[in-house]
Amino acid sequence: MNWELGILAGAVAGLGLTVVVRELVPAHPHLRATLGRLHDDLRPESPKAPESPTRQSSLFQDRIGRLLEHRFPAMVTFRLPRRELDLLRIPTYRYFGEKALWALLGLCFPAILMLTLAVTGVTLPFSVPAFVGLILAVVMWFLPDVETRQKATKAREEFTRALGAYIDLVALERAGGAGSTQALENAAEVGDSWVFQRLREELARARWSGSTPWEALHILSRQLGLSDLDDLADIMRLSGEEGATVYESLRARASGLRDATLSAEHTRANADSERMVMPVALLGVVFMALLAAPTVMRMLE
User: Fold this and answer.
1) Which candidate, 157, 155, 36, places its Cα nearest to that of 90?
2) Whole-angstrom distance, CA of residue 200 vs CA of residue 191
3) Helical pair 92-119 and 127-141, crossing angle rounded to 10 deg
4) DSSP 170-220
5) DSSP character for 80?
6) With 0-12 CB in 10 A as exposed, 13-18 as middle and 19+ as buried, what is 114?
7) Higher pLDDT among residues 37 and 84, named by residue
8) Which residues contact 27 (CB under 8 A, 6 or more apart)?
């Protein structure tokens, strides 16, 4: 019986090793990523987005994700974090595929652990790994949700910092005599970060569709949940449709964004400092106890 369990455990371990090797083997290159690499020598390397849009997942994960995307009812897909996924540019099928792989890992881990223990002579009832596996599968199914929201929060913070610089550039373009549309497009051409790339894409899409750039920015702000970008769209709409002077408004808005970002950084730093007080205090108590321990022991003797 033990050698049969050993063979089964070896087969499961071999299957896991095969999956890991398959994940590490490079997938077929994406056409957009390949064309982008052809021009890397003509432009400086730009920082990646918090979640790289060109990241290639395995074919197995994509197939599972597409299957779940089509099988799940509309109620489940309605509760997806669509704003976060759009901000990070993660396809829905890839998101479902990642959730399925995490749930499968949680479901199989107790069974693999039971087989390993069985080889050593420790046996457990079948209901224990089955029950624990179901609980782990449910818990790990929601892990990508937490990770996606955390990455989206960091991405919004980075977008806000870059937006302050972008608004300053728009104000300088307007002060130089450029029109509202030209100021938005020229300012978006300056930066190489993923924020400026996203702005360039939206402005180009608005130009090709015949809509105004502030309408495109307004739609993007609602799609991604970026209220600061909506404020910029309103300011540029006043400039483009009513001919209002917006230089001072743009500079004030950029200054307000920088102040808000600096205040958030200070708040985060203060919170981190407060969290460090307790470990340092405990370390001091332990150190004082070590110093006082010999004296206390002599007194007790």
Assistant:
1) 155
2) 10
3) 150
4) HHHHHHTT--HHHHHHHHHTT--SHHHHHHHHHHHHHHHHT--HHHHHHHH
5) S
6) buried
7) 84
8) 56, 57, 58, 59
Condensed to tens digits (0 to 9), the pLDDT of residues 225-276 reads: 888 888 888 888 877 766 667 788 888 888 888 888 888 888 877 777 777 7
How far apart, in whole angstroms, are the C-alpha atoms of residue 177 and residue 168? 15
- State the number of CA atoms in the 13 A half-sphere of 25 facing the CB: 10
Helix and strand counts by DSSP (H, E) for the chain: 13, 0
pLDDT band at 11 (very low <50, low <70, confident <90, very high): low
Kindly tell me if the per-residue pLDDT of 78 is higher than 70. Answer: no
Going from N- to C-terminal start, the domains of the chain cover 2-19+56-141, 155-257
HSE-CB at 264 with a 13 A cutoff on CA atoms is 13
- Give the residue carrying structure tokens 């015949």: 210
